Amino acid sequence: MNIVFDARVVQDHFPGIGRYAHNLLAELPELLGDDETLTVLHDPSVKNTRYQETEIGGQGSDCVTWIDYRMPIFGMKNVLTIPPIPNPKSALVHYPYYVRPRAARPPSVTTIYDAISFAYPEYAPSAQARLSIRLLHQMAIAASHAIITISQSAANDLVRFFPSARDKLVVTPLAPDPIFAPQPREAITAVRAKFDLTQPFTLYLASNKPHKNLVKLIEAWKLVISNWLMNTGEEPFTNNQQPILIIAGHHDPRYPQAQQRVKTLGLEQRVRFIGPVSDAEAAGLYSACALFVYPSLYEGFGLTPLEAMACGAPVACSNASSLPEVAGDAAVLFDPARPEDIASACLRVLRDDALRAGMRAKSLAQASCFTWRETAQLTMNTYREVNKVKSKK
Description:
This protein folds into 2 domains: 2-175 and 371-386, 3-Layer(aba) Sandwich (Rossmann fold), CATH 3.40.50; 185-367, 3-Layer(aba) Sandwich (Rossmann fold). Helices cover 40% and strands 14% of the residues. It has helices at 15-31, 76-80, 116-119, 127-143, 152-161, 185-194, 214-227, 257-264, 279-288, 303-310, 323-327, 339-350, 353-367, 372-392; strands spanning 2-6, 37-42, 64-68, 91-95, 108-111, 146-149, 169-171, 202-205, 245-248, 271-275, 291-294, 315-318, 332-334. The strands form 2 sheets. It has a 7-stranded parallel β-sheet with strand order 3-2-1-4-5-6-7, with helices on both faces. The radius of gyration is 23 Å and the shape is globular. Residues 233-240 have low confidence and may be disordered.
């Protein structure tokens, strides 16, 4: 079997999908059997500042071939053209994005990560864009012999919107990158200094898109501040000792509601927005925080809280979509629709040193259950199962 992997998504336009493709390609060459080869289609003309080909496994191997394929992903030509595939009769193609050639031959596998475009159709800029997204998903599902998705929750959602996908779906979870591990003291000190974090803090790291539920987190944080002393017998804390919430991640200017809510509630001294951070900075923040909180309403997988767990952070997160599946019993779960429930979960963890210590150990154990080697092995199993079925026909 010649496995053809469409690596054109390893570019800056696809940060998450590019990471997925890169990490699979780092592992797949070592999993090839005696009668298996890997062909990587890549586009050296696209902007790619995150990942280097030299980091991908199988460099110099006779079993791995790289082919330049400078076809832009977006556009009908990509959908209508079959890529250059060596030995097509023995080939199986993996497209890690739903915008892919509509041809059903050679046999193919497509990764569809979630159903967010259908759960939140308002994210599409127009009715025409929504229709295009749906049609491209339908074509990808029809052309694929298997559909890989990243959680059972995502699989259930895809079946809800596309019943024809039911018998094709295979779940292969994601995993944290190696950089996400408990950081040494000097790294924690450096990240604290860079962001002026002189006191214990709770961390949120993600975008401000509406499904991330950031406004409800801000409202919950008002309750945290209001109740910080209410149920304790201690003397009032000084202002600097009250809990602080650090919000990191990309800010989409279309959604200013969280910043507006901070001002309305008078939380300017208790909530800080620090913007995008690098992976190294994120690992330092995860390792340094007293609590990582994630109130998202919808996640295809929930990689961010898993990254926090891999760094040993105590995690409180939504009981929605895939998050319980990923967090297991290591996190404190809450109802993301109820600010009082979010606040209660945060207060429970922040007030209890022993609980936090136990949660740190549970976080590390839970994160260790997810590895890219296991994801790659499950993916390879899918290739072989599709090839077995093809061979019988």
